[in-house]
Amino acid sequence: MNVVRAVVIAALLLAACVVMFYGSRPLPSAPASFVKVQYWEKWTGPEAEQMRQIVDDFNSTVGRDKRIYVEFLSISGIAQKVLTSTAAGVPPDVAGLWGDNVVQYAAMDALEPLDELAAAHGITRDYYKPIYWNACRYDGRLWALVSTPWAILLHYNKEIFEHRAADLRAAGLDPQRPPRTIEELDRYAQVLTTYQTLDGRRRIICSGHQPMEPGWYIDHIVPWFGGRYFDPSSGELTINSDEAVRAFDWIAGYARRDGVGAVSEFRSGLGGFGSTQNPFLIGRLAMMQQGPWMANFIENLAPEMNRWNVPAEQLRREKDFSQLRTGMSHDEVIRLLGEPSSQQAGDTLVWDAGIRVIRVHFGRDNRVAATEMPLLPAMQRRKFCKWAAAPFPSAVPRLDNVAFCGFDSLVIPRGARHKKEAFEFIAFVNRRDVVEKLCSMHCKNSPLAAVSREFIERHPNPYIQVFEDAAASPNAFSSPQIPVWSEISAELTVAAQKCYLLEQSPTDALQFAADRAQAKWDYFREVQRLRNRNASAEPMRQ
Amino acid sequence: MTRSERKNLRNGLAFLSPWLAGFMLFTLLPIALSLYYSLCDYSLLQRPTYIGAANYRMLMGDEVFWKSLSNTFQYALLAIPSGLAVSLGLALLLNAKIRMQSVYRTIIFLPSLVPIVASSMLWLWMFNGRLGLINVLLAKVGIHGPAWLSDVMFSIGSGASESRFHWAMPALAFMSLWGVGYTVTIYIAGLQDVPRELYEAAEIDGAGLWRRIRHVTLPILSPVIFFNLIMAIIGTLQVFATPYIMTGGGPARATYFLTMYLYDCAFQFLRMGYASSMAWTQLIIILALTGLAFWSSKRWVHYQGR
Question: A72 to chain B nearest CA, in Å?
């Protein structure tokens, strides 16, 4: 028994020692004379670590010079936590909210306006792409700036197009390009959908397109049909416009074509978006709507999709790069990588390695001094991609480059203690070089009007220029700037589901959504009117 | 009260005071405030504005509220009886004198220890329409299983008055059986209290297994069944995490429960006053059903020694 006790005590002591020496450490704290800016961000995992790099960059440059120290805290459920901390009067100085939260929070007086601070830092309308600048504004004021933005495009699997080229041509469609209209999209989808009959039931094996897969932006479908949910000039909702009915009927059309049961069965057998079973990655969905981050998911989960028809030797070379060490001899390098494809100025040898190029710099002793493996320029990488991105087709002739644009925002919650210093950090994140670094790491397009050539060429998404063009397009659109949009969005999503399941006609489903949306919008406006009246009456009473 | 009693009271209260302070500050006060907020328009970010019973009036005309309430009752009707029956059945089996009894008891209890998110993810795959274990097993006996979380089970009526019932609801109720371990443990504890002589007397009178269960076990176990029933009513009427993770309330609000709507109103739509009125309505419903259960208990719950 004594032995057991001794072992247990020793194990506990050992565990205590491990925790003491290797356990968590307090965050590096700010020097005493620095202003401490608290920054809460919603990202976790790699995205949070990448943002932490930006914070470190700030702290070691601008922050050090201006005696500001940003404390970065990655937290989940950001909206609720910012909400409660703001209500309690102890908010962070900077918060990374979802873009759709901005108008909602601004309308409820939970954010500090940023107009003057932005102007003082030279951040004006011209600096930004209009769609993102306008999305950060509400009621004539600026409430947020963008940390990372995105545009939603059509992603299509070129390999499936190639395999079904004959069928596409037979249907009068070009397998070398994506669809350009909704009508074409439907025809492509029909040809690319393959079925199998099992026990007398028709199963979808590969689907050309499914509007609800993944369906994240289904509530935003109407602008592709030429409509809008909200008329900013009149302030009225237009939820069940003719364009909306047409859009929702298009959603229902896919269930009518394949049968609700077959579509349900197909969708229920698909893996999650962030898994290797993502239907686009395993070739079971030929076309879908997604954002620029898809390139990151492809590279991480299905890297072969970025290395289509790359010679095996180059693929091997890309893998062997990790074995290169400084100090290796010229012969050792040649043995590892084979004969170089070219020699650059000085003693630099170059090898093709698929979507990358390997450069090995030799020193005077003819030994490896440095190595690098940068990405090929975007246009050269595209030919190796099994996939491509293009504007999601529109149902209206000559309505080109329609794209839903969303963003992650940086805001200063009401009651923040260090507004000026907080904005120094926000302005730093909005510097072009910083924006491009962060957006490259997060695999997103830039919110800024001007982007560098380097950003486009070296971006992990070889189609980033297409996203840039879409975001800069006059037909780009964002969430309607109404504070009750989250409620309306929920209603529209349910309406889309009802149409997709053929439970209700588009007209009925949208009428129900429109009635509920109108009631919420009317209620919100009435409450705001009463609040404004009470607020203006208060000074008079005083 | 004597001096020593006063001293004991003072000491007792002093020891209780941390809990009392915490209870009053973090439970009682929020409950009281939520009652007030249910009479206000309150977004958490702005001052509450008193609007009387407007939230409750809106609630009565809110179709989504009624839909979520109806879903909650449907779920309760499926999950409560099946949960009570399955856990009682398992408890009876696990109470039998068999080898490795404690191992079986542990196996039955283990799923209750799995975090809800993990078990939800697991069941998402179990219910997978094409690759899920349930459909694979059904296919082996020639049954083509549905897409459990999205297919329609049956519909009533036609046209605008058509009501559709989805497989997702019974699927969620079935999944709730995964966590019967706690209830089984309580039943097993209750079964230990059934006097052996009653079984022996019943056996002498010629009662078979079913009659012994029907006339001995169930009446003596009835207070435990009643306790589990009350807990099940409270638990199922507040179901949230599992459907939130597995279905998000879909398809088309078929599994959108009252607590999910309450959460959305409070934290997604920032309508804290409206959500508070929903919470109080939910409390009243739970109290009413619990009261009903207590009222009915006079007829079927038998306490020993009374």
Answer: 24
**Are B129 and A268 inside 8 Å of each other by CB?**
yes
Spell out the alpha helix ranges (H) of chain B.
Answer: 3-23, 29-37, 54-60, 63-95, 101-113, 116-126, 133-140, 168-176, 181-192, 196-204, 209-212, 218-236, 241-246, 258-263, 272-300
Cα–Cα distance for residue pair A158/A287, rounded to 1 Å = 10
pTM for the model stands at 0.88
DSSP A30: P
Q: Which of residues 387-406 of A touch B (CB under 8 A)?
A: none
| Closest CA of chain A from B129, distance in Å | 5
Q: How far is the C-alpha of A74 from the C-alpha of A94, rounded, in Å? A: 12
Contact B228, B183 (CB under 8 A): yes
Interchain contact, B149 vs A268, CB within 8 Å: yes
- B49 closest CB neighbour out of A199, A261, A531: A531
Q: Which residues of B touch A512 (CB under 8 A)?
A: 63
CB proximity A535 to B under 8 Å:
no
Rounded distance between C-alpha atoms, residue A144 and residue A112, angstroms: 9
State the DSSP H helix or E strand holding residue A36, giving kind and residue range, or none if neither: strand A35-41
* Per-residue pLDDT tens listing for chain A (542 residues): 578 888 888 988 988 888 877 776 666 667 788 999 999 999 988 999 999 999 999 999 999 999 999 999 999 889 889 989 999 999 999 999 999 999 999 998 899 999 999 999 999 999 999 999 999 999 999 999 999 999 999 999 999 999 999 999 999 999 999 999 999 999 999 999 999 987 778 889 999 999 998 889 998 999 999 999 998 888 899 999 999 999 999 999 999 999 988 898 888 888 888 888 899 999 999 999 999 999 999 999 999 999 999 999 999 999 999 999 999 998 999 999 998 888 777 788 999 998 999 999 998 888 999 999 999 999 999 999 999 999 999 999 889 999 999 999 999 999 999 999 999 999 999 999 999 999 999 999 999 999 999 999 999 999 999 999 999 999 999 999 999 999 999 999 999 999 999 989 999 999 999 999 999 999 999 888 887 787 777 654 44
Q: Measure A486 CA to nearest chain B CA, in Å.
A: 6
A282 touches chain B (CB under 8 A): no
| ipTM for this model | 0.85
